[in-house]
Each structure stands twice: as structure tokens, then as C-alpha cells.
Design a protein that fits this description.
Rossmann fold
């Protein structure tokens, strides 16, 4: 999503952009839907994967690099933009050999392996968390935040009503931990007579099961497989319960209090570091995945709701964390590096 936001801004300024990705990644759906061309490569991860998958990824690397070299020779991009990830590896090597300017945008407090490996070569590094700046050269690093749709920044504060509205989202794929925690909390909220309503994005693969169980449990609110209008869902929520990946930038832009449950298998525990960063400034509550269940969710929600102005203070702290204009600034930097010859190897997943 951040790469798409930057590509849209570059397109608005009259530039042509293309993406490089895999057919099984989320980019396969999102990029063509936004009207951008995409070139395909085969690539996989190396961290926290089994031996067979790691060997398969290593075998895919040489042909992927060769394919990207041919793509770059044919398309002649003026600069490369990357948000990291395993798909960026082959593009890094190919773009480095062609000595193309590289701008990386690091969304996490701890950069992923791809961006860490390329840190000393990048032309510019745009970071979302101050903690990430130490991994890149100081004179090439800028704290810009992460591109977020304008609709999130325009969400007004929501007055508390008689009922607390809780938005629960585990991302497009859903979260088993969050799904089961919501179901487990229902009898506790009912027994306490606590007025709560859930808008629960369960994920497409788990929706049928979770919606059936939610109906049996008498879940107050509704369960959906996917939310097409996330800004509207944020606007109607008093509290967000979510993972600690890219959603954090949306939480900050919307100025919403949150309970963050980091994905425990995220590379380098980057989601935990992201959540710690927001919790440190009072914008969120951090609950480890292994500690989250129906009882803990009930306790966290009711405790926050019982503290006068607690949710409002958290929302204000989240808003201070937000940095509007990240996509525009990234596009500025891309134009700047594309105008001058590069003396630094460059690497990327997405190319513009």
C-alpha cells in the first residue's frame, strides 16, 4: 500500500511507474487494480522458513536476477523505489549492478533483512520510526512516516456514545488469535452488562467459521470477511484492536486509541518493536499474542473504558505520531535522485 501511494503521486506528476512482484503476493491483486503495469518474478523468503523452502528460494535467485536485469535494460527506469521484502532481493542485485538510484521506505522500527543488507548502498532512506534511522547512513536518512490515504487524516474525533464500538482487524487474511479472542470475550461482556459493539474483520479464509460461531455466541455487532472502506470503519470506532504492521500508520493518522497484538512470527520481531514504539508514547496498549484471549480482551477494553478520558488521551498521542504528506515527500525524493547520476548501487522491489 505505501508503494502504491507513492506510485499514484508520481503518476499524478506525469511520471510512468511499473512494479516488480510475484503472482502469489498481494501486489498481484492490488497493482493491476490500480492501473499500473507489473512484471513477474519468482522469489521467496529465507527467514523463519523450512530448509526445503530456503533451498527453493536460493535456487530461484539467479534466474530472478537475470530476469530483472533484462527488465531494467528494456524499461530503463530513472530510479528505483523499494519497501523491502523478499521480492526486493533479486531487484536489489540487478539494480545495483546497473547503478540505479535507490530510495527505500522502511515501514518498521526494525528494518527487514533486505533493507538492512542494502542499508550502506541506498541513495536515500525514508523511515517511519525514529528507531529505524540507526540502520542507515545519517546523511541519507529522513523521518517521513508512511504514506496513508488522506481519508484517514480527515477522520474527526468521535464522541463517546452509550455503546463502545470496537473495530477488530487482523489484516486482509485475518488473525486466528484475534478472532478467537473476540468470541471468547462475548459471554464476559454480556455477564458484565457492558455495552459494546464489534465490527470484526475475520479474514476471507476464516469468515464462514467465525461468523457461524459469532452468531451462536450472540456477538453484538457484525463479522465481515473484508472491509473495503477501512477509513469509514475507523471513523465509526472508539477503539481499534489490530496487529502492529502497516495498520499502525492508519491508527496514527486517524488519531485512534488501539490495543496492539503483534504477530509473533514477524521477521526480526518488527511488529513487537512497532507496538512498543506506540505504547511508549501512550498511544496504544501492547498485548503479546500468547497473552491475548477472550478474558484479556475483555479486561483491556473495560479498563480503558472505565478511565476518564483515557481513550481520548490515547487518540491524541496517536495523532502526534502521524506524519502527513509522506507520499508527496517520497515522490519529491524520487524526482531529486532521478535528476542526477547515481554513484551508489540501488535495490528495490517496486520500480518507478
Amino acid at each position: 500500500m505505501p508503494a502504491l501511494a507513492v506510485a499514484r503521486e508520481l503518476r499524478r506528476r506525469g511520471h510512468e511507474c511499473f512494479f516488480i512482484g510475484t503472482r502469489h503476493g498481494l501486489e498481484a491483486k492490488l497493482v493491476p487494480a490500480d492501473g499500473f503495469p507489473i512484471e513477474w518474478i519468482e522469489s521467496g523468503g529465507l527467514k523463519r522458513v523450512g530448509a526445503m523452502r530456503a533451498l527453493r528460494t536460493l535456487a530461484q535467485l539467479p534466474p530472478a536476477v537475470i530476469r530483472v536485469m533484462l527488465l531494467l535494460r528494456r524499461r530503463q527506469p530513472a530510479a528505483v523505489f523499494s519497501t523491502g521484502g523478499y521480492v526486493a532481493g533479486p531487484v536489489m542485485l540487478a539494480a545495483g549492478w546497473r547503478r540505479l538510484p535507490l530510495v527505500v521506505m522502511e515501514p518498521n522500527a526494525i528494518p527487514g533483512m533486505t533493507n538492512r543488507r542494502a542499508a550502506r548502498w541506498v541513495t536515500r532512506a525514508l523511515v517511519n520510526f525514529p528507531e529505524a534511522a540507526r540502520f542507515f547512513r545519517r546523511d541519507r536518512t529522513e523521518l517521513t512516516g508512511l504514506p496513508v490515504r488522506d481519508e484517514f487524516f480527515s477522520i474527526p474525533p468521535k464522541p463517546r456514545g452509550q455503546e463502545l464500538t470496537v473495530l477488530v482487524t487482523g489484516g486482509s487474511q485475518g488473525s486466528r488469535t484475534l478472532n478467537l479472542s473476540v468470541l471468547g470475550s462475548v459471554p464476559l461482556f454480556r455477564a458484565a452488562g457492558f455495552p459494546v459493539s464489534f465490527l470484526h474483520q475475520a479474514g476471507a479464509s476464516q469468515y464462514a467459521e467465525i461468523s457461524r460461531l459469532a452468531e451462536q455466541a450472540g456477538l453484538p455487532g457484525r463479522v465481515v470477511p473484508f472491509l473495503d472502506d477501512m477509513p469509514a470503519a475507523f471513523a465509526g470506532a472508539d477503539l481499534i484492536v489490530c496487529r502492529a504492521g502497516g495498520t499502525i500508520a492508519e491508527v496514527a493518522a486517524a488519531g485512534k486509541p488501539a490495543i496492539l497484538v503483534p504477530l509473533p512470527f514477524a521477521a526480526d520481531d518488527h511488529q513487537l518493536r512497532n507496538a512498543e514504539s506506540l505504547a511508549k508514547v501512550g498511544a496504544a496498549r501492547l498485548v503479546l499474542d500468547k497473552e491475548m484471549n477472550g478474558k484479556r480482551l475483555f479486561e483491556e477494553v473495560t479498563k480503558l473504558a472505565s478511565e476518564p478520558e483515557a481513550l481520548e488521551r490515547m487518540g491524541e498521542a496517536a495523532r502526534r505520531f502521524a506524519r502527513p504528506g509522506a507520499a508527496q515527500r517520497a515522490a519529491d525524493v524520487m524526482e531529486e535522485v532521478a535528476r542526477r547520476p547515481s554513484t551508489v548501487p540501488s535495490v528495490a522491489k517496486q520500480s518507478c
